[in-house]
Write a structure and sequence with these properties.
about 110 residues; 2 helices
Length: about 110
């Protein structure tokens, strides 16, 4: 074989390998895009809900502790009103969790 033919064959093989790598990378990017969508639209909102729930639960626990430890009725009333305010925030979050989890398990 002449050198020109050998070079042509090697460049053709290199081009085939390059096309294969490009196709595999496009496939990998599409699966990565699906994973990013799942992360952005499914898991992150649940994380925000959970963190808000935890924050409100900690706030209610501190308010209850303060209400129990104090002897002043005005402070007790104020702290108990803080607990009631946290339930107004927590109830919609619990409803979202409940609705989302039921929808998730019904579809499986």
């Amino acid at each position: 074989m002449k050198i020109g033919v050998k070079l042509s064959i090697s460049y053709a093989m290199l081009l085939i390998v390059l096309v294969a790598v490009i196709l595999l990378s496009i496939n990998g990017l599409s699966s990565m895009d699906e994973n990013n969508d799942k992360l952005a639209y499914d898991r992150f909102p649940k994380t925000v809900w959970a963190n808000t729930f935890i924050d409100q639960l900690n706030l209610a626990a501190r308010a209850l502790r303060n209400a129990i430890l104090t002897d002043d009725p005005a402070v007790q009333k104020e702290e108990l009103s803080r607990v009631l305010a946290t339930t107004a925030t927590v109830n919609p979050i619990v409803a979202c969790f409940y609705e989302y989890c039921l929808g998730y398990y019904e579809h499986q």
